[in-house]
Design brief:
The protein has about 240 residues and is α+β, with helices and mostly antiparallel strands. The protein contains 3 helices and 9 strands; from the N terminus they run ββαααβββββββ. α1 runs antiparallel to α2. It is elongated and about 100 Å long. About 15% of the residues are buried.
Amino acid sequence: MARYDTPGLRWDSGVRYDEPEVQPGKGKVMARILRSLKKQSIPNKVDVVDQLAQASAGNPLATQLATELADLQAKKALAKAAYDAAQLAQAAAVQRTADQNTAESDLDDSYDAYVDKAQTVTGGDLAKIRSLGLDAYVPGPGASAGPMTQVVNLSVSTGDFSGTVDVHCDKVPGAKTYVVQVCADPLTEAGWHIVGATPKSSYTVAGLTVGSKQWFRMAAVGVDGAQGPWSDPAMLVVQ
């Protein structure tokens, strides 16, 4: 065994820890196969396995890898089936969320129509309003039933599902509801339309076209139904 003090053997003799591995007894440098599968998407992984299977056809070396290749192809089929099912489920979830938001918006509109008619029928009499199971706001002396303050710090981000966007703003004191509007680019006042309302200062807009540029804004509504100014708009490309 060579020692560090062996004559003729120097510390910088050229032997390095990171040199290619040498096959024992043959003095041949061994190539190392790249392991580049883990960070790829499932569709890419499926393609890689298919390429391996194609390269193995008629290759005499492949006979020694038959068991491993068969297991690899079986696992590929399971991964592909799970991926396809997940994609279908995601698309269905996006559509169901859009249907839910539409139904919720329709419900809110119907409720508002009911309240507007009840306001007329009761003449603003508190007892009559409560007899209908509704709540009411009675401004005190000198109290203002004016609109809410403007929504600030509006932010938008990609939602959990394809075609969805999460919209959030700071809470407005006294706000009962937040209304959300969307406008497809280019930004025009006529392009705005309401996509929903929520008692919270955050909302998920669904059913948007992937790749499209959309603008968003929110406004707060008080207990008396008075709406405050719209927030400054925020834009996001839908993912």
